[in-house]
Amino acid sequence: MLTxxxxxxxxxxxxxxxxxFRKRWTVVKSGRPEKLLxxxxxxxxxxFGHDKIxxxxxxxxxxxxxxxxxxxxxxxxxxSQFDFALPVPIARLLSLLTEFLGLAMLxxxxxxxxRRFGAAExxxxxxxxxxxxxxxxxxxxxxxxxxxxxxxxxSSYSWSSPVGWLISLxxxxxxxxxxVFIRLHFFAILVFVAAxxxxxxxxxxxxxxxxxxxxxxxxxxLVPISPSADSIGADTIHDFTWKQLLEAEACVSCGRxxxxxPASQSEKPLSPRKVMQDILGQMEQNGNNHTDLPTxxxxxxxxxxxxxxxxxxxxxMACVTHCPVLIExxxxxxxMRRYQVMGKARLPAEARPMxxxxxxxxxxxxxxxxxxxxxxxxxxxPQLVQTSTQxxxxxxxxxWVGCSGAFHxxxxxxxxxxxxxxxxxxxxxxxxGKEEVCCGDPARRLGDEILFQKLARAxxxxxxxxxxxxxxxxxxxxxxxxxxxxxxxxxxLEVVHATELVTNLIRDNRITLKYPVADxxxxxxxxxxxxYNQVYQPPRDICRSVPGTQLKETERNRDSGFCCGxxxxxxxxxxxxxxxxxxxxxGEMANTGxxxxxxxxxxxxxxxxxxxxxxxxxxxxKVADIIDIVADAMG
Length: 635
Known about the structure:
Elements: H1 4-28, E1 37-38, H2 40-49, H3 57-80, H4 88-118, H5 129-152, H6 162-168, H7 175-195, H8 203-212, E2 213-214, H9 242-250, H10 256-260, H11 262-265, H12 272-289, H13 301-304, H14 307-310, H15 318-322, H16 329-343, H17 352-361, E3 397-400, H18 402-407, H19 409-424, E4 429-430, H20 441-445, H21 449-465, E5 470-473, H22 476-485, E6 494-497, H23 498-507, E7 520-523, H24 537-545, E8 550-552, H25 581-590, E9 596-599, H26 602-615, E10 622-625, H27 626-634
Parallel strand pairs: 3-4, 3-5, 5-6, 7-8, 7-9, 9-10
Antiparallel strand pairs: 1-2
Helix pairs in contact: 1-7, 1-9, 1-12, 3-4, 4-5, 5-6, 5-7, 8-9, 9-12, 12-16, 19-27, 23-24, 25-26
């Protein structure tokens, strides 16, 4: 049993731990307020399921061993302090379980220690060696204490403590030695508890809190701001919400974001892991200097995150998808862009003409509303016209064309192909035509929130005017904006991607694919269709429905797919550092040996087409939109 002195030491360790966490929590709460949900069931599922962590098999299993090797024996030890007795067989089984868990934890800790000392990465987790060594010391002294106990009191039931029994064969039966091991074990536990907030192991608390507190809506959603707010975007850490600061605190710097980031993998300076570490570094500097309030005394985020890093992001959401502790570096990058654009007018020069076109003409091409429906000329494409006799049943859905579908030469045919499909299926649809302006995605991703909201409200007014209930679009960027971001402004509609609709039409035999298009097709997963909206299967189902076609997968596909390089406003920015992302992706897809690369995004179509041409292959694969493939297969 614990003595009064032991209880005093435990209290001291807990106080030291509490002071450390209190200090860090004060810095986290210095961020702007944000409404969050509490998800205790989600936290329990996360901790005991380990699904996200196990995506990396070796590190995932090692973490699983350490977690359960720590949690279950700790629970048993705490319960054993209460005055009750278990049946002997159950007690021995629990003893056997703790032995095996201790061995598993030992293996996991050794793996992490070897991995840490073998890592030469400058961004690798810091202050990790000490707590791992302390945990190793706790495990070893626990086994030695058990072995010494068995050497003193030999038991015929050694099967319940196999490791202790093996150690007892070489350990003298000394009560004094057993007490030494027990005290060392106890003191090591106190050191670990007291050091928790000051080492890497603070993620036990911070990461759990990050999972417990969750935002409403989809993962990866941007933090909404009001243009009338005092601070637009992030200039210092105090401009982030407290949830964003909590995410920086929870980051374990494992590097999975970096391993999947197209900018990092194409030799750009951006590393989502470094962005999170830079934010954490400024938080710790703030905490050490006790600067709770004066924003003008805080270091600027721009001093840590360079412009080349900030503008290299394609907003593909790979960092968000692959983070094992549900951190979202993307919204911090966009918030920093917002400040640079709206607070400092530092938009990259090559993107300024496009933003000006959006402001003046309402589209990224600068063509103007008068030409918005030129692609549909002489094709009898119905447009929404408000009349007193029009009933809601006349139009089943609105076909949202988007800037690319209305103006870009490469995407005009896709719009016409979609009209052909809808007419063949007998769907009553219409377009807004000259009353449609850009959805606002390019402006928002580049940081111009004011322009985004201006464009969005113009479209929402038209939706309300024509009582639009359902929208289908060929562009995943438009899909994500209309479906997931317009609700922030009070507009909730049913929005589906063209591939989702066409999949249902094929399944219901409303359209028939009769002709082969290519022998082998590979699918490129558009980030805004896949990672943002979880639409992976429809493009594949469509291609499998094309006669005589074999579908091949690239090594990086679905949620591990590789970006085309056009998102996040990168479509309008020069790529002067490292490799071109679209060329990297085009090379991967060409190496599959396919005849045709299928995608379901106008940005991806243009980027991959340019990428394939840059490869200068003798027999390059063609690049086509899935909707074009369907129209060709229909004949």
